[in-house]
Amino acid sequence: MSASSRTGARRMRPEIQALRAIAVGLVVIFHFFPTRLPGGFVGVDVFFVISGFLITGNLLREAGRTGRIRYGRFLLRRAKRLLPASLLVTVSVSLAIALWVPRHLWDQFYSEVVAATLYVQNWLLAANSVDYLAANNDASPVQHFWTLSVEEQFYLVMPLLLILTIVLFRTRWRAAAGWCLAAIFAGSLWYSVVLTANDHAVAYFSTGTRAWEFAAGSLLAGLGWRAPVGVRTGVSLAGMVVIGSCGLLMNGQLPFPGLYAAIPVAGTLLVLWAGMPSTALGALYRLRPVQWLGGVSYSLYLWHWPVIVLFPFVFGHKPVLPQTLTLIAFSVLLAAGSKYFVEDPFLGIKHRYQHAITLGTAWVGVVAVLVVATGFTATARADTRAAAASTLAELKAHTGCFGAMSMRPDAHCDPAKAPPVDPAFAKNDAHGIESGTCAGGTVLEQISDGKACVYGDPKGAESIAVVGDSHARQWVAPLDDIARSRHLRLVTYVHPSCPMADSPVISSDGVADASCAAWVAGSLRSIAALAPAAVIDAALVPAGYTAVGLSQGSYESQVAAHRAAMEAFIHDGAKVVAMADTPYEPQDVPDCVAAHPEDRSEACAGPRPTALDGRPQPLLDAAKGVPGVMVIDLSPYFCTPAECPVVIGGVIVYKDRQHLTQTYAKSLAPFIETALARDLIV
Predict the structure, then answer these.
(1) Among residues 162, 263, 255, which one has the least CA distance to residue 511?
(2) H helical segments located in 275-353
(3) What are the pLDDT digits (tens) for 417-463?
(4) Of 219, 387, 595, 677, which has the fewest Cβ atoms less than 10 A away?
(5) Can you say how many angstroms the Cα of residue 451 is from the centroid of all Cα atoms in its chain?
(6) What global pTM score does this model have?
(7) What is the rounded distance in angstroms from the CA atom of residue 519 to the CA atom of residue 50?
(8) Which pLDDT tens digit goes with each residue over 190-236?
(9) From CA 626, how far away is CA 475, in angstroms rounded?
(10) What is the DSSP string of 106-134?
(11) What is the DSSP string of 420-431?
């Protein structure tokens, strides 16, 4: 994967090239045929161990030979090996996005191009995985750069740690370095196990949960151990079998990385410890195709993923088997060209000004990528702002037929006169609270890993609380407007994937989300202290949680948990409103509307029985058992008797598959306000 994982093809140990060939083969086959090799993602872990082994080994040899590590020279060598090919890919991807990708995806894709260029892609993906809404993002052509980002962060830190041990311990620096690596290994492995159990998505991309894999390779390099000659073949074969078995038997449902990552890591360590067998296995490692594939593994890793992601945008459909095989061959061809015409020429520079040449080329490349990516992102955002201005103008000019208003029984609206829709605007059409902060509001209280926020009129005499998961958060936009006009404080207690009920949210590996439980408990205490006049509760239905790999125990336990929360609110003197859930469309709505501008109703709208009616709602069943709880069901403004349209009154209804756009939510404000006023809640 990483060009810096080698000291040059001519000096590379054959068994390491074979390891790299196996690793890139696992990743590529997994990406092209995920069901055939469900654990192929472990190839990444193999690369991490190899990188730790080679890079740390080189640094230790330099320190032993010269008594110091030249950090600047080390980074220049990394730039010389890494940047030429990676910048070629990011520049090519930037141009391909402009040519073939719909504009509503530019903001996300070019933001990821910038993150990939700066080697912080893993943190961007981790942040997006925390945001339940951003988790619906499309896979970008540079998503795979997260692994390169983790490696580069390792390259920045590891030499500094070794330099520090040399400075502090001088004559005993080798022992100190060993203890330091052991501490990193143990601490990172512990952190990986804990975070994987509590936040699987973030753990997958975090540098902290992966550092132990590099440290494992580093420790082996530092110890300098090699298996006895007589057992090398058996040890090496065992390591390869372990790695291959992981590719076949593991899958994305496992709590990975965590302890499960120790299996491919152990297999890789066995192969590295064994060294080069002098038997038929060694002859297999030396085969030219194996060595060649190991040599182009970095470029192949770089190119294959953009090819996969961009194909549907170019040709309008997913590839069938013959096309998939052609794409694999095309990826290999790109990798070969990249290696022989980009990687090798830069590695072969022997000019006295080679570092200046490398730095200059890298600087020009980085600037080129950032200028292209940010330029197109600015264009996309400018278009989005223009669409927003146009939408708001239409809202004022055609109130009677705009958005949800067009679904009134007495409305007589001509769809042909509705304003044009913009999928790019819809995809980013969210209230400030959806940024994960209190954007547009003020912080009332920090609760666990979230915030209670104040909107509406902060000086209002009475407070209304909005509670629940992201399907409660989508109501904040219209309720904010209502609270402002009525001079009420609107206090939000909303957290992605956390309904306001003492019912555990369980991940696919059977582990309850401790952060969600802490958020709910803290919020219930805070709401009791706030003593709001009313509590508005909303939650995604169980089918929606199942669709994203989460569960909440039995249906009966969910109903009981919601009922207990409602009774507690009423006991504290609050009126309670239960919001019926909104439809769940069969696909990403802005993407579908962009792909079907003429027949979007037929292609994108979900049938009402599956999108709305066929989904039991524990929140509403709980409300039936608590006297005085008011239910607001806005389904007449989302669905006809037959279907649930995705564009209503000239407004795209959803920003993904299930969350409302702010514009459509605001168009529902008059109906929400009427219902709340009827029961004297506002």
Answers:
(1) 255
(2) 280-286, 288-295, 297-315, 321-338, 344-347
(3) 777 788 878 887 888 787 677 888 888 888 877 889 999 999 988 99
(4) 677
(5) 22
(6) 0.73
(7) 40
(8) 999 998 887 777 889 999 999 999 999 999 998 888 888 889 999 99
(9) 23
(10) HHHHHHHHHHHHTT-HHHHHHHHHHSTTG
(11) PP-HHHHHT---
